[in-house]
Amino acid sequence: GSLTKKSSQNKTNQIIKHYQEEGQGSEVVQGVLLGLVVEDRLEITNCFPFPQHTEDDADFDEVQYQMEMMRSLRHVNIDHLHVGWYQSTYYGSFVSRALLDSQFSYQHAIEESVVLIYDPIKTGQGSLSLKAYRLTPKLMEICKEKDFTPEGLKKANIGFEHMFEEVPIVIRNSHLINVLMWELEDKSTVADKHELLNLSSSNHLEKSLQLLMDRVDDMSQDIVKFNTYSRNLSKQQQQKHQYLQRRQQENAQRQSRGEPQLPEEDINKMFKPPQPPPRMDTLLIAGQVNNYCQNVKEFTSQNLGKLFMAEALQGHN
Amino acid sequence: MSRFFATGSDSESEESSSADEITPKAPGTTLKQSLLLSDDEEDTKRVVRSAKDKRFEELTNLIKTIRNAMKIRDMAKCLEEFEQLCRAFLKSKNIVDKEGVPSFYIRLLADLEDYLNLLWEDKEGKKKMNKNNAKALSTLRQKIRKYNRDYETEITAYKENPQESADEEEEKEAGDSGSSSDSDDDDDDDDDGVSAKAFLKKKPESAPDASKFLKSSKGSGESSSSEDDDEGGWGSDPVGSGSESSDEDQGKSASLAVVFLKKTHESEKSADKKVSKRKKIKKEHLEEEPEEGEGEEVEGGWEKVKGGVCLVKEKPKMFAKGTEINIPVVVKKLNEILQARGKKGTDRAAQIELFNALAAITAENNLGQGILVKIKFNIIASLYDYNPNLAAFMKPDMWKKCLDCINELLDILFEDNNIFIGENIAEDSENLAISEQPFRVRGCILTLVERMDEEFTKIMQNTDPHSQEYVDNLKDEGKVCNIIDRLLDYLETKGSTEEICRVYLRRIMHTYYKFDYKTHRRSLGLPAESKSEQDQDESEGEDSAIIMDRLCKFIYAKDRTDRIRTCAILCHIYHHALHSRWYQARDLMLMSHLQDNIQHADPPVQILYNRTMVQLGICAFRQGMIKDAHNALLDIQSSGRAKELLGQGLLMRNMQERNAEQEKIEKRRQVPFHMHINLELLECVYLVSAMLLEIPYMAAHEFDARRRMISKQFHHQLRVGERQPLLGPPESMREHVVAASKAMKMGDWRTCHSFIINEKMNSKVWDLFPETQRVREMLVRKIQEESLRTYLFTYSSVYDSISMHTLSEMFQLEIPTVHSIISKMIINEELMASLDQPTQTVVMHRTEPTSLQNMALQLAEKLGSLVENNERVFDLKQGVYGGYFNRDQKGSYQQKHGGYQRGGYRNQNQNNY
């Protein structure tokens, strides 16, 4: 069953703070989520960031650091069950091999683990963007078997739509936090509040398009690769077929002449099938492209709404 | 020789002395003798004889090996040799027809058959034979049976009269011991120890004595054969002075033996020699032997050279005193000298001298022009032969001699209308005698002249182009042209069409690359400022254009070899282009369709094609056809190997890839320096045309993702310029062009102009054009126009409207010009604007897509290609023909996203306004 996820504002703020402190532009920050499973919910109650490494401390041990952190947290009696991790994103680009791999290892260890994706740019535009994802069981199967060949994926019948499942989020704050929020809202200026109504769109769209285009290029390349592969494969199949036929004819002739048959040779050795290109990347790219499109769609629909609103306002004046 | 005396090897001295009447003093004697003897020998017969001997020698050699193999019962070897023998016999069929089947051949056939039958009967022996041999035996037996059927009569005749077989046996013995050289040597030495010692003792005695001794020695057959061995061993010694003995190798001794076999039944060898002393016919024979031998052996040749030198000294002795000098005698002499031609060690210089002397004698004795022409031909040929290697070039003075000779020859030919020459006149149908009939002489003057011309090219190729020597050599070009002209006159009256075509091409090759200053000046209406009379002569001559036209058209009409026509067309185009007749040149180029198949031509023609293309491009540039110029030069320039492609030098880069042989070949293809096309000029013309095309294009397509480079080379130069860490004032031609391009990008035509046309560039490039001023004016004009276009592309977005007056002032162009340029841009949808006639302003329409729109367009394009690729995957699954989308649909897809291009977008936008 899908688990609803709850998280506290406290931790949300921590994530945001982490990004603001350390993340810049397209750089990505990551951290660990802590919490506990209650009934059919996964409650995330705390988090801590992975420190940014620099070249100097190459011998820094992340696992060691995590253990230390968790031990320390346990000492102060905070939930210390490792329930996932979080990552910031840049214009919604997060569907990558790295994410897949680490999420797989998390989910493999603890079934309920999620990854929280925080989009600082969208948030900056006035709406908090926080999403929780989990790999679908199908994808887990595939990852377990490490079978990324075209056939494997075909057998698993998985498309880019079924790779991740989004887990609904409910944010629940403590009363103290609520009070703080009210306080903050009260203090903020009008301009800050109406960030949401910003009409400028081209910058954001341009960036998105740029990223989308890059992915599309990647996809094209992959397709070309796949194309060559399948062409080679079919050519080889033909050769193999011809060879077998010839062999059969010869054997038939030999039989009629009463000679011994030709020894069977290892056909696979003679015709080494070409290396199939891994399809997982293509799948991921497709997922990412889908993601971008969703983002752009969402963004443009909102923007259109704003534009109509602005038009109406102007007409009214 | 004395060295050999010291070591005690006597045989050769003895031998030579026994053959010659003269005492062996001078090493040159043999030749002298041969020359003396040659007086009374018949030429034609000689040739046949020698061929016959050669063939028979081959046969006897083979027979010998067969007999050897028979002895050791090596059937496989026997079979192999027998097959060879049959082949060799077939080869010598001509001779056999003339002379009849040689008896030794028949003897072998008979013997072999008997022998094989014997073996066949011998069941025991057959069993002992190994498999290979047994097989060979049966095959051979079958073969010889079949073969012998043809010679049945001869064989039976032989069998009836087996007396000869004894000689044969003997001969074979000698041959055997000779062929199995070293190992047998020892035995022989042992056997004949006494006689050998006797020889040694007799050594200092005079030669006749020695020969007498030979005669008297009783066991002559044996002893002389052993002697032959010794002699053979010494003869093949590289230092052995090649008198008779060295010539008579074992093989030859055998053949000789065969020839004289019937006459002498004692020891063949010594006997021959004695006979030869007495009998004239045989002398002739012997004399001819050394001649041949010398051709084949280094030592022999070495001696012959000496003989040649000797001869030069005693030139008057060429003909024996008192000999009546008539044509047959001279011809014979000529042939005699010719015999030595091409042989290893022949002193070529001496040969030439001999020919000259002969020519002088002929002239002295008034033997008529025919023979003189023939001698001249041979002199020229031997002058060419002087250099043994075709790749090496003739020495200029040699070449000049050749030139004079050809001139003299032509003089004769012009003087006397009664001489026919041609390569297809057979040697024996020549008519050299003074008679009613016209002279007929074998030889082709055209080939000689062509060769002379090629040698001239080679000389030019091998002279340092920056030396005075080169200039001096180049002065001879006039002479070459003169000769070609004279030959042309001659052949026009007497030659065949093909010959005329060939000589015309020669003439064209010497004309096409020369700029006709006289005509140029005349066409400009300037008086020809001739300084000398010669100049005046030239200026009065035909226009080179008219000559070219006449010659080329003749070739177009008459030529049947494709190559000459191709060359003529290319030269014609080149000549047109050189003289700025752009349209003629272009039309000729297009009509010839040479672009399509030039890659199948041989390299020299391709080089000529490249040269023509380049010249065409430069011509287009001078005429202001920038685009044509660029297109013509693109192929040559984009490769970066212009130098190589034009045959003006080898690239160092390729040095590793080719070996010495290829390099030599390539060097031979090089165009001589005076025909070079200035590479810097070429590059400059190309870069400037690229700049004039590329800069406005770049400005117009700034945001276009699909933008293509017009000229890679030009972009490369731009990048090089950008990479410079410190940008100083331009130095080289390229830097000038790059700097000018940058200025043009900003629409700054004045700076651009100053970079393109200044003193440095003038001296480097522009002054090399014949009509410098006109070209410069054209260039300025082009720069202004293209700068205007660039300016409008780049800055139209910041203007709402712009007055044409301002533009015309900015770019120093007349208002109508500005008007026409802008109109053109609007029509081509390059500029989104309209013209406002009353106020003379250009009103801009803001329709340039924003960067977001541009990006969306790009994305659309990319998606289009993605879909296309995807379809291909699909096609593959379905098979090509069962594809979901067929080709038409795919085409429509492309059209569709063609619609996404700027024009379409703009149209939509314009509708909105």
Structural key phrases:
heterodimer, A: 317 residues, alpha/beta, 8-stranded mixed beta sheet, 56% helix, 15% strand, B: 913 residues, mainly alpha, 3-stranded antiparallel beta sheet, two-stranded parallel sheet, 48 helices, 5 strands, 71% helix, elongated, disordered C terminus
Explained architecture:
- The complex is a heterodimer of chains A (317) and B (913).
- Chain A has 317 residues and is of the alpha/beta class.
- In chain A, 56% of the residues lie in helices and 15% in strands.
- Chain A has eleven helices and eight strands.
- Chain A has helices at 9-22, 62-75, 97-109, 120-124, 137-145, 150-156, 175-187, 190-193, 202-257, 267-270, 280-316, and strands spanning 4-7, 30-38, 41-49, 81-88, 114-118, 130-135, 164-167, 169-171.
- In chain A, strands 7-6-5-4-2-3-1-8 form an eight-stranded mixed β-sheet.
- In chain A, helix 3 links the parallel strand 4 and strand 5.
- Chain A is elongated, with a radius of gyration of 27 Å.
- Chain A starts with a strand and ends with a helix.
- Chain B has 913 residues and is mainly alpha-helical.
- Helices cover 71% and strands 2% of the residues of chain B.
- Chain B is built from 48 helices and five strands.
- A three-stranded antiparallel β-sheet of chain B has the order 3-5-4.
- In chain B, helix 7 crosses helix 10 (152-160) and helix 21 (327-339) packs antiparallel against helix 22 (348-364).
- At the A-B interface, helix 9 of A face helix 46 of B.
N-to-C order of helices and strands of chain A: EHEEHEHEHEHHEEHHHHH
Number of strands of chain B: 5
Number of helices of chain B: 48
Summarize the main sheet of chain A.
Answer: 8 strands, mixed
- Separation, N- and C-terminal Cα atoms of chain A: 53 Å
Contiguous helical run count of chain A? 11
Radius of gyration of chain A: 27 Å
